[in-house]
Write the structure tokens for this entry.
Amino acid sequence: MHATLALLENTDFPAIQRGKLETLQVNMGYRCNQQCLHCHVNAGPKRSENMNGETVDQLIRFMRIGTIKKLDLTGGAPEMNPHFKRLVSTARELAIHVIDRCNLTILHEEGHEDLARFLADHDVEVVASLPCYLKDNVDKQRGEGVFDASLAGLKKLNALGYGQEGSGLTLDLMYNPQGPSLPPPQAELEAAYRERLKDDYDIVFSHLYTLTNMPIQRFGSMLISRGEFEDYMQLLRDNFKQENLDNLMCRSLISVDWQGYLYDCDFNQMLTLPAPLSNKPHTHIGELINIDIEGKNIIIKDHCYCCTAGQGSSCGGAL
């Protein structure tokens, strides 16, 4: 796989600093029951990296401080971590909002048959990847049979109340383009998704988020192989919007890797660019309790243009 960091080092992206920390985004490991072309984590069934119980304990100790409003769990498939349910249960006891970034197909995997019910019982917001409402497009990007399995997962969540008006259970869908292009306007695409999924499959959801493909890991390597990397980066730069800077997720979020080390965002984590929060090369979640991170600089490279292009892009959709 082609490395992309060297191609992103020289940048004129504006300097940005941290605001108040509100969200812990935790990568619970790189194990996944899928292996998607666009995956910036390079996750898959053969990956063995998984957060251990001791690191989960340190996360819980930090959450007990009372300043974190949101716990955003990702992977891989975060649910494949054996400590997933313990971390979710504790966060909810602390009245912390929990997001599970779910690939949907995990809901029918052996050993996870009760997962959907667990998520509903704990009022977990589910953010599910569904890059299109067309079978061929989804299977091309995520693997043969994934579309049908994803619909089965959505129906299972709908049956529990997810996405249903008045249920209080939030089911968000995540869209990303098939190739090196910017996502279409989020509101217009959400309307199309809502109509097609309801009419064709009787499936409902809460919101649709659009995410611009990050030029790192598998997607970045594919661009290099096709000779499209520079053109894609130019597209991102040409569509830079100054007004998106204020709403960048890295201003209020810390990304925690499966070993407990801290990064400014999930993308910097995948590029092994540690957050400059202390005088150490790597700061651990166990040390964060003693550090005031507000106002500290955020590590920037050329890939940051991905988050500010067009309508903007974040783990919460358009900015």
Notes: The beta strands are 23-27, 70-74, 97-102, 125-129, 171-175, 207-210, 253-256, 262-263. The domain at 5-308 is CATH 3.20.20 (TIM Barrel). Residues 191 and 208 are 9 Å apart (CA to CA). DSSP finds eleven helices and eight strands in the chain.
